[in-house]
Design goal:
The chain has 371 residues and is an alpha/beta fold. It has 14 helices and five strands. It starts with a helix and ends with a helix.
């Protein structure tokens, strides 16, 4: 019985890829080494304390207190709109403390209290803290007590006007490696699709193999199908390996569905494989393909939130990088892996990847040449 040429070519492409040590290194080993190195580094060490503030008073006195807190270098103050969203951010590990300034803050703790010493009861400031971050909440509580003491002395010589009622909240405490893992997976998919396709097909063109292939009974679509299926398979494989290492060796808690992550790997792999075909069609040699591929990959690697949150970048740069294909892939994978989001809830990222897939496919069809 005669074997199906498409399946035969796919199996041959698989064997060729796994026998290529350089392909194995760049697609599997290098991303794994990067994740291990950054995972072992203590980037989660103590820094500024993230404090969400709910100002129910919204008067000059509460605004004055907020102004004082915002100039304290140890605190990173975020003004929250409501209690539910603030506590939700605390439970997700995005805040170390949440401070609630009550509506009566200005009446008993403001200028009206300066004329007397015992006419008003103390104002209770509610503080919810992440009990899994003891250093952060202890520093935050100490700073809050110092600020309230200073306000007490400014307003009156009486006893404390403000009391802090601190309540622990059980939160999910994310580490740097939890943030890093989805970004490294997305980066590995980009490198596999872009570089492996670009260099492999440029080399095949330069050696005349693609031109001779056209003279054989093998249909070109069968050959291309085999190459695409091989690399999509590698995308799923490397995603499974990286996620498995992160879970087993770095105790990363995978909140989402692994099948959703693998589905995103397939979509992202298709995007970058198409970009790789476009590069291989444009470049006539490996010397030309390398800088073109790097010009595409390097900016995305550092601007798409792989190693650090994009919120750390200037606002204008955030707006520009929001539409990069690696940003869509990394953000969607991070939402699924860390936040436990469903695949369909990432429709913005999926639409963005679909648009990039259409654009890159058109570029690949337009630019790709067999010789």
């Amino acid at each position: 019985m005669r074997a199906n040429p498409t399946l035969a070519l796919t199996w041959a492409a698989m064997k060729m890829w796994f026998r290529d040590r350089q392909a194995l290194f760049w697609s599997l080993f290098l991303p794994l080494v990067i994740m291990v190195i950054f995972g072992l580094m203590n980037f989660g060490a103590f820094g500024r304390v993230d404090v969400g503030v709910i100002d129910l008073a919204d008067n000059p006195e509460s605004q004055g207190m907020l102004a004082v807190l915002e100039i304290v270098e140890a605190l990173d103050i975020t003004r929250e709109s409501d209690r539910a969203s603030a506590l939700s951010a605390l439970e997700r590990g995005e805040r170390e403390l949440v401070l609630v300034i009550p509506a009566e803050f200005g009446s008993s703790g403001g200028p009206a209290a300066r004329e007397g010493t015992g006419g008003f009861p103390p104002v209770t400031l509610e503080v919810f803290y992440n009990e899994g971050q003891p250093r952060e909440y202890q520093v935050g509580l100490a700073v809050l007590r110092q600020v309230t003491d200073e306000l007490t002395f400014q307003f009156t010589d009486a006893d404390r006007l403000f009391l802090i009622d601190a309540t622990p909240v059980e939160s999910r405490n994310l580490r740097y490696v939890d943030f890093l893992m989805p970004g490294i997976v997305a980066m590995a998919i980009m490198q596999m699709g872009l570089f492996s396709v670009a260099f492999a097909f440029v080399q095949l063109k330069r050696q005349g193999i693609l031109r001779r292939l056209l003279a054989t009974p093998v249909k070109p679509v069968s050959f291309l199908f085999a190459q695409v299926v091989t690399r999509l398979t590698i995308s799923v494989l490397q995603t499974g390996v990286l996620v498995g290492v992160a879970v087993l060796f770095f105790d990363v808690e995978l909140a989402g569905n692994i099948l959703s992550i693998l589905a995103l790997a397939l979509v992202g792999g298709a995007v970058f494989i198409s970009l790789g075909f476009a590069v291989s069609g444009w470049a006539r040699s490996e010397e030309v393909a390398a800088p073109i591929a790097n010009v595409i990959a390097l900016p995305m690697m550092f601007l798409s939130g792989v190693f650090f949150p994009r919120e750390a970048m200037p606002k204008i740069l955030q707006n520009v990088t929001e539409y990069l294909p690696l940003t869509y892939l990394a953000d969607s994978m991070r939402s699924v892996a860390i936040d436990g989001a469903t695949l369909w809830s990432q429709w913005v990222g999926l639409i963005g990847l679909a648009v990039w897939l259409a654009v890159s496919f058109v570029l690949a069809v337009t630019l790709f040449r067999w010789e």
